[in-house]
Design a protein that fits this description.
heterodimer; A: mainly alpha; abc type-2 transporter like fold; 17 helices; 6 strands; B: alpha/beta; Rossmann fold; 4-stranded antiparallel β-sheet
C-alpha cells in the first residue's frame, strides 16, 4: 500500500509539472462546456435555434401576406431579409429572381415566396413556395417546422381566411353571408355574445368562437389575440413532468454529464497509456527492482485515474453550476459517489486500452474509435431512445450509459442512495470485468518486460 | 577457518524468451566486496542476467540467491540490491531531488533519514547544486550520474550496473568510475556489465566472460589471461617488409592484423630469441616491435573465435 501511495503521489507530481496536460484535462473541457452550452442555447428562455437567415419575397397584395411577414419577423428563430442591397447601398424589395444567385453566394440558405394567390379559392390552406439549400436534413426540417409553427401560432387566422375564401368560392357571396349570419345568430343565442361581432370575426377568418371565448372585451382587432384563436390550439397537449420539475437549468443538467464523460474518457485513456512511456524510459525496471510489485504499479495507476477523474468530473459539474446554474447543492454527496464509480469505470477502460494495445500510437487510435463509439451509443451526444432497439440494448453494456444514468438519477430525478445502488452496481460490474481482463493481459503481455 | 558465503550465487540459471535461450545454465558466485565484471558483446545475456538478479523477471531454471535469499518475490533480497538500469530510468519532468525522494520512498525511507540520504547521494554524484532542476534539462552525463545516485539511496549491499556509461562523455564516465571504485572500497559489492574490455579491466577484480547466454570463463584478470596459450603479444605495423616476416611467423603462433597493426601471439615454448633473430635477418629495426601482455580481447577471441565488437 505504501508503494501505491508513493507512485500515486508521483503521478500527481508529474501532472502538476505538465501545464499542457492540466490545460487539456481541466481548462479545455471547461471552455468546451461553455461553447457547447452556447451552441445548444442552454439556459436560454427559447432553447431552439435563433437568427436563421430567411429571405422573404412578398408578391401578394393580400393584407394577410403582410401580416405573415410581420409574424415571421417576430419569430426569434428567423432573421427575415426582405430587401436587396444595391452596390450604391440603396435597397429595393427582394424579387424571386434574386433568390437563386444570392443562395449560391450563401447569403442565406432558406427563402420564402408569398405568391399573389396566397389564399386560394380552389382548396383550403395557404399557398407558399420555399427555396432551400440545406446543409443537412435537420436544418431543413427545423426551417419547415418553425415556419409552420409560426403560421399556426402567430397568424392562425390566415387558415380561417382560407376557409372563408374556399366557402365563398363554393357557396357564393350571398349564401356565405347567409351562412355566417345564421351561424352567428345560433352561437349568440346558445352561448351568448354579440351576434354582429361574431359574424365579423367569422368573415375575417378568426375562429375564436370555437374556443368558446366570446368575451366581447377580447374581440378587438384581428391578429392581436393569437391565444384565443382555436386554430392555434387545434391539438392541446397537457404535459405533466414527473422528474426534473423546478430545475433551474434542465437542459444543462441533462447535457453536462454526457460531455463530462467524453472528456473523462479521453483524459483517463491518455493517463493509462503513460504506462508505455514509463516502459520506454526503463522506469519499470528500476521500480520493480525495489520492493514493488506489478500489481502495485497497476493499482497506483487505477487509483490515480479515479482521483483524476473525480477531480475532473467535479470541476466540470462545477463549471455547469457556474455557467448554467446546474443545481448540485444537496445532491453533492451522491454526485461525488457517482463520479467515483464513473471515474473507476473510465479508468478501467483506459487500463484495458493500455493492456491490449501494442504501442502508444495504436492505443491512441483504438481509444479514439472506442470512446466516440461508446459516447454515441451510450447517450452522451443524443438520447438513447432515438436509437434502434439493438443499439439501445448494446448501449446498456457501455460505461457511458450507466454513468449518464447515474448523473441523471442524482441531478434530474433526485433519487436516493437506495435507488442509485443498481446503477452503481452495474458500473462496478463493468469496472470489475474490464479490470480483471486488463490485469490478466498485463500479466500475459510484455509491458513489464 | 570458514569461507565467506557468496553474496550472490547463481546455479544453473536458465532464461528463455520463446524459442530463444537467453541464459543457458549460468553459474557463478560473487563474494561480498567483489567488483565483478560481466563482459560480453551485445546480446550475450548480460542484461537478462541483471534483470533476473533484480527480480523482475522469473527464472526458467536454476536458482539465484542474494544474501542467501531467492530474489524472486523476496522483499529483503530486493532491498539488498540497487539497480542502475541501462536506460535513464528517471522521471525527466521532475527535479533531481523529487526523483530521489520517490525512489527513496519506494524503499521505505522517510523524513530526515531520506533527506540526508538524498543530500549524500547528490553530493556523491556532484549534482548537489542542480538538485532543484528538472532532469530533462541535464546533460546525458548528468542524467547518468543521477541514474546511479537513485540506486544508492537505500544503501544496497549489491549494486547492479547494467552498462551504466552508455553514451556518456569521458568526464562523466570517469566520475562514475571513481564513485563506483570508492563505493567498492567502502565494501559495496558491484556487478558491472559491459562490452568494453577497457572498463572491465580498469574496474573489476573478477570478470565473467559471457556469450550466447553461457559463462565461458570467470576469474581475476590474471587467472583469465593464464588460460591463454601465450604470455605476450608482439605488435608491429603492417608494411611490405613486415608482411614477409608475418608470413614466416604463422607456424609459431597466432597472427592477426587489426587496424594496420600485426599481432603475433607465440605458441608456448617458442623462444623469443628466435623471433628477434628472424627480425634481424630481415633488417627490421627493433623499435618497430612492442611486446605487451595479452588483453581480455585476445581471450575472448581465443574462446569464441570472434572479437567483442562483432
Amino acid at each position: 500500500m505504501n508503494s501505491i501511495i508513493v507512485l500515486l503521489r508521483k503521478d500527481f507530481s508529474i501532472l502538476l509539472k505538465d501545464r499542457a496536460s492540466i490545460m487539456l484535462t481541466f481548462c479545455v473541457p471547461f471552455v468546451l462546456i461553455y461553447l457547447f452550452g452556447q451552441i445548444y442555447h442552454v439556459n436560454s428562455s427559447d432553447p431552439g435555434p435563433s437568427g436563421i437567415p430567411v429571405a422573404v419575397v412578398n408578391q401578394s397584395d393580400n393584407p394577410a401576406a403582410e401580416r405573415l411577414v410581420n409574424a415571421l419577423k417576430e419569430e426569434s428563430a428567423f432573421k427575415i431579409l426582405t430587401k436587396y442591397v444595391n452596390d450604391d447601398k440603396t435597397t429595393r424589395p427582394l424579387t424571386e429572381d434574386d433568390l437563386r444567385p444570392m443562395m449560391a453566394r450563401d447569403d442565406f440558405r432558406f427563402a420564402l415566396v408569398i405568391p399573389k394567390d396566397l389564399i386560394r379559392t380552389d382548396h383550403i390552406g395557404l399557398h407558399l413556395r420555399t427555396y432551400t439549400n440545406p446543409r443537412n436534413e435537420i436544418e431543413s426540417q427545423t426551417f419547415n417546422g418553425i415556419l409552420q409553427k409560426t403560421i399556426f401560432s402567430r397568424v392562425p387566422q390566415l387558415i380561417g381566411e382560407s376557409l372563408q375564401a374556399r366557402a365563398r368560392s363554393y357557396l357564393g357571396d350571398v349564401k356565405l353571408d347567409e351562412f355566417n349570419t345564421n351561424m352567428a345568430h345560433t352561437i349568440a343565442t346558445t352561448w351568448g355574445g354579440d351576434e354582429e361581432t361574431i359574424k365579423r370575426h367569422m368573415s375575417e377568418g378568426q375562429l375564436r368562437i370555437l374556443n368558446g371565448d366570446l368575451n366581447a372585451a377580447n374581440t378587438t382587432a384581428a391578429g392581436t389575440e393569437r391565444s384565443s384563436d382555436a386554430l392555434s390550439q387545434i391539438v392541446k397537449i397537457e404535459n405533466t413532468q414527473v422528474a426534473g420539475v423546478g430545475l433551474k437549468s434542465p437542459m444543462a443538467t441533462m447535457l453536462v454529464g454526457g460531455w463530462a464523460m467524453q472528456f473523462l474518457l479521453f483524459a483517463l485513456t491518455a493517463s493509462a497509456t503513460a504506462l508505455f512511456r514509463e516502459k520506454e524510459h526503463g522506469i519499470f525496471q528500476r521500480v520493480l527492482a525495489a520492493p514493488v510489485s506489478r500489481g502495485d504499479i497497476l493499482w497506483s495507476k487505477f487509483l490515480y485515474g479515479i482521483c483524476l477523474g473525480l477531480i475532473q468530473l467535479i470541476i466540470l459539474f462545477f463549471a455547469g453550476h457556474v455557467l448554467y446554474g446546474i443545481e448540485i447543492g444537496a445532491q453533492l454527496p451522491l454526485l461525488v459517489l457517482v463520479c467515483v464509480f464513473a471515474a473507476a469505470a473510465c479508468t478501467s477502460f483506459g487500463m484495458l486500452i493500455a493492456a491490449i494495445a501494442p504501442t502508444p500510437e495504436s492505443a491512441r487510435g483504438i481509444s479514439t474509435f472506442v470512446i466516440l463509439l461508446m459516447c454515441a451509443v451510450g447517450g452522451a451526444w443524443f438520447p438513447v431512445s432515438f436509437m434502434p432497439d439493438f443499439i439501445q440494448r448494446f448501449s446498456r453494456l457501455t460505461l457511458v450509459y450507466w454513468s449518464m444514468e447515474g448523473f441523471s438519477q442524482v441531478l434530474w430525478s433526485h433519487d436516493t442512495l437506495l435507488q442509485l445502488l443498481p446503477t452503481l452496481g452495474y458500473l462496478t460490474l463493468i469496472t470489475g470485468i474490464v479490470m480483471a481482463f486488463s490485469v490478466w493481459r498485463f500479466r500475459k503481455g510484455r509491458l513489464f518486460d | 577457518m570458514t569461507a565467506t558465503p557468496p553474496l550472490l550465487s547463481a546455479n544453473g540459471v536458465v532464461k528463455r524468451y520463446g524459442s530463444l535461450t537467453a541464459l543457458d545454465g549460468v553459474s557463478l558466485d560473487i563474494a561480498p566486496g567483489e567488483f565483478f565484471g560481466l563482459l560480453g558483446p551485445n546480446g550475450a545475456g548480460k542484461s537478462t542476467f541483471m534483470s533476473l538478479v533484480a527480480g523482475f523477471r522469473p527464472l526458467d531454471g536454476g536458482t539465484l540467491t542474494v544474501a542467501g535469499e531467492s530474489v524472486s518475490g523476496s522483499a529483503s533480497a530486493r532491498t539488498a540490491l540497487g539497480l542502475v538500469p541501462q536506460h535513464i530510468a528517471l522521471y525527466v519532468d521532475l527535479t533531481a531531488e523529487t526523483n530521489l525522494r520517490i525512489f527513496g520512498e519506494l524503499y521505505g525511507l522517510r523524513g530526515k533519514e531520506l533527506r540526508e540520504r538524498i543530500d549524500q547521494a547528490l553530493e556523491a554524484v556532484q549534482l548537489a547544486d542542480r538538485r532543484a532542476d528538472v532532469v530533462k534539462t541535464f546533460s546525458g552525463g548528468m542524467q547518468r550520474r543521477l541514474n546511479l545516485a537513485a540506486a544508492l539511496l537505500h544503501r544496497p549491499k549489491l549494486l547492479l550496473c547494467d552498462e551504466p556509461t552508455v553514451g556518456v562523455d569521458p568526464q562523466s564516465r570517469n566520475a562514475i568510475f571513481d564513485l563506483l571504485q570508492e563505493l567498492n572500497r567502502g565494501g559495496l559489492t558491484v556487478i558491472y556489465s559491459t562490452h568494453y574490455m577497457e572498463e572491465a579491466t580498469r574496474l573489476c577484480s573478477k570478470i565473467g566472460i559471457i556469450d550466447h547466454g553461457k559463462i565461458l570463463a570467470q576469474g581475476s584478470i590474471d587467472e583469465l589471461l593464464d588460460q591463454l596459450p601465450f604470455e605476450e603479444e608482439i605488435r608491429f605495423p603492417a608494411s611490405d617488409a613486415t608482411n614477409v616476416l608475418l608470413a614466416q611467423l604463422g607456424g609459431h603462433g597466432d597472427v592477426e592484423t587489426v587496424d594496420g597493426v600485426h599481432r603475433f601471439r607465440p605458441k608456448g615454448g617458442y623462444p623469443m630469441s628466435s623471433f628477434y633473430l628472424l627480425t634481424e635477418s630481415h633488417s627490421l629495426p627493433q623499435k618497430l616491435f612492442t611486446s605487451q601482455r595479452p588483453s581480455l580481447e585476445a581471450l575472448f577471441l581465443q574462446l569464441t573465435g570472434r572479437t567483442l565488437r562483432e
